[in-house]
Input
Amino acid sequence: MNTEKIAARRLSLEEVTKLGVKDRLFVSADTAELKLSDCYVPAFLTKSGEDFEGGSITARTIFQEEVSCLPDDENEAGIYVADEDGSVTIEVLQSAGVVLDLALFVPGGDKGALTALYAAARQAFGADIVQIWRQGLKEVPDVKVDIFEEQVPRGRKATESPKRDRRAIDTYPTRADFIEFSAGWKPVIEVHRPVVDTTPTI
Output
Protein backbone atom coordinates (compact mmCIF):
# COMPACT_ATOMS: atom_id res chain seq x y z
CA MET A 1 0.00 0.00 0.00
CA ASN A 2 1.53 3.30 -1.11
CA THR A 3 1.02 6.16 1.36
CA GLU A 4 2.58 9.56 2.02
CA LYS A 5 2.95 11.11 5.45
CA ILE A 6 1.97 14.78 5.64
CA ALA A 7 1.67 17.33 8.43
CA ALA A 8 -1.98 18.23 8.94
CA ARG A 9 -4.48 19.94 11.19
CA ARG A 10 -7.94 18.68 12.14
CA LEU A 11 -10.79 21.07 11.35
CA SER A 12 -13.72 21.90 13.58
CA LEU A 13 -17.25 22.07 12.17
CA GLU A 14 -17.08 25.87 12.26
CA GLU A 15 -13.89 25.84 10.15
CA VAL A 16 -15.40 23.39 7.65
CA THR A 17 -18.45 25.63 7.12
CA LYS A 18 -16.10 28.33 5.79
CA LEU A 19 -14.70 26.09 3.03
CA GLY A 20 -15.81 25.81 -0.57
CA VAL A 21 -15.97 22.95 -3.07
CA LYS A 22 -12.45 23.69 -4.40
CA ASP A 23 -10.69 23.42 -1.05
CA ARG A 24 -8.62 20.24 -0.74
CA LEU A 25 -9.37 18.15 2.34
CA PHE A 26 -8.35 14.78 3.74
CA VAL A 27 -11.00 12.33 4.95
CA SER A 28 -10.95 8.73 6.17
CA ALA A 29 -10.02 6.13 3.54
CA ASP A 30 -12.40 3.57 5.10
CA THR A 31 -15.13 2.26 2.81
CA ALA A 32 -17.80 -0.40 3.23
CA GLU A 33 -15.70 -2.81 1.13
CA LEU A 34 -12.22 -1.92 2.39
CA LYS A 35 -11.18 -0.99 5.92
CA LEU A 36 -8.04 1.18 6.01
CA SER A 37 -7.82 2.42 9.59
CA ASP A 38 -5.79 5.57 10.30
CA CYS A 39 -5.43 6.26 6.59
CA TYR A 40 -6.80 9.28 4.70
CA VAL A 41 -7.54 10.26 1.11
CA PRO A 42 -7.75 13.62 -0.69
CA ALA A 43 -11.32 14.89 -1.07
CA PHE A 44 -13.50 17.92 -1.78
CA LEU A 45 -16.81 19.00 -0.26
CA THR A 46 -19.87 18.15 -2.37
CA LYS A 47 -21.20 21.66 -1.72
CA SER A 48 -20.01 24.74 0.14
CA GLY A 49 -19.57 24.14 3.85
CA GLU A 50 -22.12 26.80 4.79
CA ASP A 51 -24.82 24.87 2.91
CA PHE A 52 -24.63 21.78 5.13
CA GLU A 53 -27.06 21.48 8.02
CA GLY A 54 -27.13 19.45 11.22
CA GLY A 55 -23.36 19.20 11.62
CA SER A 56 -22.97 16.40 9.06
CA ILE A 57 -20.55 17.08 6.20
CA THR A 58 -20.34 15.14 2.92
CA ALA A 59 -17.17 15.03 0.84
CA ARG A 60 -16.29 13.21 -2.39
CA THR A 61 -12.85 11.61 -2.52
CA ILE A 62 -10.62 11.61 -5.59
CA PHE A 63 -11.59 7.93 -5.86
CA GLN A 64 -15.27 8.97 -6.28
CA GLU A 65 -16.39 7.68 -2.89
CA GLU A 66 -18.81 9.87 -0.91
CA VAL A 67 -17.94 10.15 2.78
CA SER A 68 -20.18 11.68 5.47
CA CYS A 69 -18.87 12.59 8.89
CA LEU A 70 -19.40 14.79 11.92
CA PRO A 71 -16.19 16.87 12.20
CA ASP A 72 -16.67 17.62 15.91
CA ASP A 73 -17.35 13.99 16.88
CA GLU A 74 -14.23 12.67 18.65
CA ASN A 75 -15.24 9.09 17.78
CA GLU A 76 -14.93 9.79 14.04
CA ALA A 77 -11.81 10.17 11.92
CA GLY A 78 -12.59 13.81 11.20
CA ILE A 79 -11.58 16.18 8.40
CA TYR A 80 -8.02 17.44 7.97
CA VAL A 81 -6.16 20.00 5.85
CA ALA A 82 -2.46 20.06 5.05
CA ASP A 83 -0.59 22.38 7.41
CA GLU A 84 3.20 22.50 7.83
CA ASP A 85 2.66 23.69 11.40
CA GLY A 86 -0.03 21.07 12.04
CA SER A 87 -0.07 19.17 15.29
CA VAL A 88 -0.42 15.72 13.70
CA THR A 89 1.01 13.62 10.88
CA ILE A 90 -1.46 11.63 8.80
CA GLU A 91 -0.93 8.91 6.22
CA VAL A 92 -2.49 9.73 2.87
CA LEU A 93 -3.29 6.92 0.41
CA GLN A 94 -1.75 7.53 -3.01
CA SER A 95 -3.36 6.83 -6.38
CA ALA A 96 -2.11 3.77 -8.25
CA GLY A 97 -3.62 4.98 -11.51
CA VAL A 98 -7.07 5.08 -13.08
CA VAL A 99 -9.49 2.48 -14.41
CA LEU A 100 -11.09 3.51 -17.68
CA ASP A 101 -14.69 2.39 -18.12
CA LEU A 102 -15.19 3.03 -21.80
CA ALA A 103 -17.66 2.19 -24.50
CA LEU A 104 -15.10 1.67 -27.24
CA PHE A 105 -16.22 1.08 -30.83
CA VAL A 106 -13.64 -0.72 -32.98
CA PRO A 107 -14.70 -0.57 -36.67
CA GLY A 108 -14.69 -4.08 -38.08
CA GLY A 109 -13.33 -5.26 -34.74
CA ASP A 110 -12.30 -8.89 -34.40
CA LYS A 111 -9.96 -10.79 -32.08
CA GLY A 112 -6.91 -9.61 -34.01
CA ALA A 113 -7.97 -5.97 -33.74
CA LEU A 114 -8.50 -6.25 -29.97
CA THR A 115 -5.14 -8.01 -29.48
CA ALA A 116 -3.43 -5.17 -31.38
CA LEU A 117 -5.34 -2.60 -29.30
CA TYR A 118 -4.22 -4.12 -25.98
CA ALA A 119 -0.63 -4.52 -27.24
CA ALA A 120 -0.51 -0.84 -28.24
CA ALA A 121 -1.83 0.22 -24.83
CA ARG A 122 0.78 -1.91 -23.02
CA GLN A 123 3.54 -0.50 -25.21
CA ALA A 124 2.43 3.07 -24.46
CA PHE A 125 1.89 2.72 -20.70
CA GLY A 126 3.79 -0.36 -19.55
CA ALA A 127 3.09 -3.99 -18.80
CA ASP A 128 0.79 -3.23 -15.85
CA ILE A 129 -1.91 -1.76 -18.09
CA VAL A 130 -5.00 -3.53 -19.37
CA GLN A 131 -5.78 -5.96 -16.62
CA ILE A 132 -9.07 -7.09 -18.12
CA TRP A 133 -11.60 -7.53 -15.32
CA ARG A 134 -14.70 -7.13 -17.41
CA GLN A 135 -14.97 -7.33 -21.15
CA GLY A 136 -18.22 -7.30 -23.04
CA LEU A 137 -18.12 -7.72 -26.79
CA LYS A 138 -20.99 -7.64 -29.23
CA GLU A 139 -21.43 -7.02 -32.91
CA VAL A 140 -23.17 -3.78 -33.82
CA PRO A 141 -25.38 -3.27 -36.86
CA ASP A 142 -24.46 -0.49 -39.27
CA VAL A 143 -27.33 1.78 -38.27
CA LYS A 144 -27.03 5.42 -37.31
CA VAL A 145 -29.51 6.84 -34.81
CA ASP A 146 -30.43 10.21 -33.38
CA ILE A 147 -30.47 10.50 -29.61
CA PHE A 148 -32.91 13.12 -28.39
CA GLU A 149 -33.74 14.41 -24.94
CA GLU A 150 -37.50 14.90 -24.67
CA GLN A 151 -39.23 16.78 -21.88
CA VAL A 152 -41.51 14.57 -19.81
CA PRO A 153 -45.06 15.99 -20.07
CA ARG A 154 -46.59 17.19 -16.83
CA GLY A 155 -50.18 16.60 -15.89
CA ARG A 156 -52.59 13.98 -17.18
CA LYS A 157 -53.59 15.83 -20.31
CA ALA A 158 -50.51 17.30 -21.93
CA THR A 159 -51.79 18.61 -25.25
CA GLU A 160 -48.65 20.37 -26.40
CA SER A 161 -45.93 18.51 -28.29
CA PRO A 162 -43.09 17.75 -25.89
CA LYS A 163 -39.95 19.84 -26.28
CA ARG A 164 -37.01 17.98 -27.77
CA ASP A 165 -33.25 18.57 -27.95
CA ARG A 166 -30.79 16.50 -29.94
CA ARG A 167 -27.93 15.13 -27.83
CA ALA A 168 -25.97 13.03 -30.32
CA ILE A 169 -25.85 11.07 -33.55
CA ASP A 170 -24.28 7.68 -33.09
CA THR A 171 -23.94 4.16 -34.37
CA TYR A 172 -26.31 1.70 -32.71
CA PRO A 173 -26.07 0.61 -29.90
CA THR A 174 -25.80 4.16 -28.80
CA ARG A 175 -24.15 6.21 -26.14
CA ALA A 176 -27.58 6.67 -24.57
CA ASP A 177 -26.55 4.35 -21.73
CA PHE A 178 -23.69 6.71 -20.90
CA ILE A 179 -25.36 10.10 -21.34
CA GLU A 180 -26.62 11.78 -18.20
CA PHE A 181 -30.02 13.16 -19.12
CA SER A 182 -31.46 16.22 -17.41
CA ALA A 183 -34.03 15.92 -14.64
CA GLY A 184 -37.54 15.96 -16.12
CA TRP A 185 -36.30 14.73 -19.51
CA LYS A 186 -36.21 11.23 -21.05
CA PRO A 187 -34.08 9.71 -23.82
CA VAL A 188 -35.64 9.10 -27.24
CA ILE A 189 -33.79 7.12 -29.92
CA GLU A 190 -34.80 7.23 -33.59
CA VAL A 191 -33.24 6.01 -36.83
CA HIS A 192 -31.17 8.85 -38.27
CA ARG A 193 -32.66 10.42 -41.35
CA PRO A 194 -30.44 13.04 -43.03
CA VAL A 195 -32.12 16.40 -43.51
CA VAL A 196 -32.82 16.94 -47.22
CA ASP A 197 -33.04 20.57 -48.29
CA THR A 198 -35.80 20.83 -50.91
CA THR A 199 -35.42 24.58 -51.33
CA PRO A 200 -35.28 25.30 -55.08
CA THR A 201 -32.06 26.91 -56.27
CA ILE A 202 -31.71 29.54 -58.98
In short: The chain has a mean pLDDT of 83. The chain has two helices and ten strands. The CA atoms of residues 43 and 61 lie 4 Å apart.
